[in-house]
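ok so I'm stuck.
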Amino acid sequence: MRTFVTFALLLCICGAALAGNLAPKKSVKEVMKSAMAGDSSLIKKVLSGESSVDEQKKLLDLMIDLSENDAPKGEASEWKSLTEKALIASAKVIAGREGSLDELKAATNCKACHDKFKGK
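replied:
not stuck anymore, here's the structure
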């Protein structure tokens, strides 16, 4: 039941974001700084399996913001696809899905995104 509620909420948020009804709270740069930068980053803590549910929810919120932003450069549809994969993988971690940490690791591959989308 918890999984269903989590994904129902996620779908509502994604639907509203895709419809343009929500503006991102944080820019791409702010998300990168908050979630991805440094050896003690939030993403590394979540991927280590040693994060709290609150930290996992914070990462999900940041992935929502990331997916609501436009790509700094590159193909917009590919940006949406990749950022939504990271968002869904983050939700699966919270739901406790088997294999979700591996899925999140693959979905948040820094080099794959930076090569295609990183602006100046």
